[in-house]
Write a structure and sequence with these properties.
The protein is 70% helix and 4% strand. It is mostly helical and 370 residues long. The protein has one domain.
Length: 370
């Protein structure tokens, strides 16, 4: 039996864990506030809060399990993990349940899972393995991008059919972020950007009418203030009404009167900003910034290229989801249905992202082992 290396425990990244738990704690309180007007129960009896707390517990177990596993072993099975999550995405159209006009969830008795959340992390793992093995010295060429594009395109096509444009957008942005970290040549990046720009008219024609309406509403929400623009307008009112210090916990009027849509998921930042104001939003975004910066430090100090790419990919998921969610709730970006990581209600998102944080802790713990 192998003796436990004490250096692993010594180099456990407590800061990453504490930052994650602080954000989750704030999310639990805000989920309670967002749902209290409808549920009318105490904190410990609120079903959404209790489920989210349960998901957090499962996420902690998953994080602990992934920390104990040497991430270098994960590299060997990267494509197996990718294939397994891809299979789950593939079966969603056949056995998945419908919610909010989309078929994205697989019911497993009392719980349901959303495979599209899991594919984000498994795609990062697969891309990290590919670029670690194929281009160990960096300097990624156009021909090197083709297999990576296939890894991205297959799940994107399946998820787009659900339909879930927001997740496809996150997958694409995260994949390009990993490409950038892997050493993508500037001229290749310009070429890919040009191809993407040329594909926009084609993509527009394949969007659902409501998705096209969301983009049009983003450009001018006042064109339909009682229809497609209603959600964005009410969200902006809630954020602005919080002013500097906010209205106070459980005192947000836009929230209590149900003017804010999807209060506990997509637009939870609006609920938080109304109650805690600019100061609270600044603190929350500061916690996210600290988490991202700590993750970048772990990536920079990683022992090998696989660990660096893996950590950078996880950081990219967190960073871009925060940017897009805050941007869409404040009217800066179109509404695409992206949740706020660790904060919005959702079991698959929370547990998957906690396991992803475990991967970052794993990489940091083992950078001293040779």
């Amino acid at each position: 039996m192998r003796q436990f290396d004490r250096r692993l425990a010594y180099h456990f990244d407590w800061l990453l864990l504490v930052l994650t738990l602080l954000i989750i704690g704030g999310g639990l309180a805000t989920i309670f506030s967002a749902s209290e007007a409808r549920v009318h129960t105490g904190f410990v009896h609120n079903p959404l809060v209790m489920r989210q707390a349960l998901y957090a517990g499962v996420g902690l177990l998953g994080m602990g399990a992934i920390v104990l596993l040497d991430y270098r072993r994960l590299e060997r099975y990267a494509y197996v993990v990718y294939a397994a999550t891809l299979l789950l995405v593939l079966v969603v159209p056949f056995v998945g349940s419908v919610g909010g006009g989309a078929r994205r969830w697989i019911n497993l008795g009392p719980i349901s899972i959303q495979p599209s959340e899991m594919i984000k992390v498994s795609l990062v793992i697969a891309l990290a393995r590919y670029f670690h093995r194929s281009r160990a010295t960096g300097d990624v060429r156009f021909i090197d991008v083709i297999p990576a594009f296939v890894l991205l395109a297959v799940p994107s096509a399946l998820i787009l059919a659900q339909p879930d444009l927001g997740t496809v957008g996150i997958l694409a942005i995260v994949a390009f972020s990993v490409l950038f970290c892997a050493g993508l040549r500037i001229r290749v990046f310009v070429m890919l950007a040009a191809v993407a720009a040329l594909a926009v008219p084609l993509l527009w024609g394949h969007l659902k009418p409501y998705q096209q309406q969301r983009v049009q509403t983003f450009l001018s929400p006042e064109m339909d203030p009682l229809g497609a623009g209603y959600h964005v307008i009410q969200s902006k009112i809630a954020i602005g009404s919080g002013e500097l210090w906010g209205k106070g916990f459980l005192r947000g009027t836009q929230n209590k009167l149900n003017f804010i849509p999807e209060q506990h998921t997509d637009f939870i930042f609006s609920v938080f900003a109304e109650e805690w104001g600019f100061a609270g939003a600044f603190v929350l975004l500061g916690l996210y910034a600290a988490l991202v910066l700590r993750g970048l430090m772990v990536a920079y100090r990683a022992k090998d290229r696989f660990g660096a790419l893996l950590t950078f990919g996880v950081v990219a998921i967190v960073f871009w989801q925060v940017v897009i969610n805050v941007g869409m709730t404040s009217g800066i970006l179109p509404v695409v249905g992206i949740t706020l990581p660790f904060f919005s209600y959702g079991g698959s998102s929370l547990t998957t992202m906690m396991v992803a944080v475990g991967l970052m802790i794993n990489v940091n713990m083992r950078r001293f082992l040779f």
